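Friendly challenge for the regulars: who can give me the structure tokens for this chain first? No prize, just bragging rights.
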Amino acid sequence: MVERPQPSPVTIEVSGLGAIDALEPLWLTLFDHHRAVGPGPFIDRSDSWPARRRLYAQVLAEPDAFVAVARRVEEPVGYALVAVHEGPDDTWPTGDRFAEVETLAVVPAERGQGIGTRLLDTVDDRLEQLGIATLFIAVMEGNDDAMRFYRRRGFRPSITKLMRLGAIPPDQQERGGSSTDDEPTPHTS
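First reply, four minutes later:
Bragging rights claimed.
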């Protein structure tokens, strides 16, 4: 039996604003995945990172927001970027503060190896230190693997977000669902 070398261990570091630029290639792999599984249309790939970077800079400028970066040797292979919000929420019993995973990404070659689990474990540990028990995360429509992963972690659907893109004429936007989905059922009192 030939002994195969084991891959280098993955380390996870909790960081802040200083980690943003290392996230670009990871974000772009997630953007490409979204384009493969999600409903379009999408912006141009070259415009995606600058917009996402601006969002991350805003989020990480807030107190207690953080990013957990997974690295194999020195190479980033995944990350979870988390925003912290003041509560309570106006609908759910979130407590005085709650968090939202803005992004969880693992490069394709590393998926299925427990890195996403370790990233969420790190997020949970950090939120416990901050006294935050409620965590939200969004999933791109069509990203069924991510949905299964989050369900295994105890997440459940709570909101469906729809979009109508103003820059694209409605007749040129993709339509989903059946014709019965086109009109809401009126409520009567």
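Residues 8 and 113 are 12 Å apart (CA to CA). The first strand starts at residue 10 and ends at 15. Your move, everyone else.
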